[in-house]
Amino acid sequence: MSADQALSIRAARREDVAAIVDILRGDEIGHGDRHGERELAPYLAGFARIEASSDNALYVAVAGDQVVGTFQRTLIPGLVARGRIRMKIESVHVRPDRRSGGIGAAMMRFALAEARRLGVGLVELTSNKQRQGAHRFYERLGFEPTHEGFKMLLV
Q1: pLDDT digits (tens, 9 = 90+) for 47-105
Q2: How do 7-11 and 56-63 pair as beta strands?
Q3: pLDDT value of residue 3
Q4: Rounded to the nearest 10 degrees, what angle do helices 41-52 and 17-25 cross at?
Q5: Is pLDDT of 7 > 90?
Q6: How far from 90 is each of 2, 4, 70, 137, 150, CA to CA, in Å?
Q7: Which end of the chain has fewer beta carbons closer than 10 Å to its terminal beta carbon, N or C?
């Protein structure tokens, strides 16, 4: 990444939502974001819920003045492991034309530093089974595939 394209990672702002949606729509799997018109209202409502929660945060990676990546973190308190707090990292996405340039790794380093700062005892993430390249990426960062995940779409 060139000096004029230095990367910064910060909390997402309402005005970033359109750029985040564009990144989500560029994802090859889609997650329901690829089809139809780009209606921002449901995304803005989702952003408002994330922003209002002290246990959730949405971040963006910015190069120059462009949002080039995003991820969300959720803190999960629990009783297991003597009340250990877990952090779930999800919706890790880099703009398709900026992949393989270190942005994902920078976002993950940032997320892990936040986890340590917040006293988190375990960081977890899920990745679609189709994303074999992402699985190799996460394993290179030190994540281990320890569990099988299950989901049920309700709407």
Answers
A1: 999 999 999 999 999 999 999 999 999 999 999 989 999 999 999 999 999 998 999 99
A2: antiparallel
A3: 43
A4: 110
A5: yes
A6: 28, 29, 9, 14, 15
A7: C
Q: Give exposure, 118-149, as e/b (b: 16+ Cβ within 10 Å).
A: eebeebebebeeeeeeeeebbeeeebeeeeee
Q: What is the pLDDT of residue 20?
A: 96
The answer for residues whose C-beta is within 8 angstroms of residue 31's C-beta and 6 or more apart is 24
> What are the structure tokens assigned to 64, written together?
């120059």
Q: DSSP labels for 39-105?
A: --HHHHHHHHHHHH-TTEEEEEEEETTEEEEEEEEEEE--SHHHH--EEEEEEEEE-GGGTTSSHHH
Which helix (H) or strand (E) segment holds residue 125: the answer is strand 122-125
pTM exceeding 0.85: yes
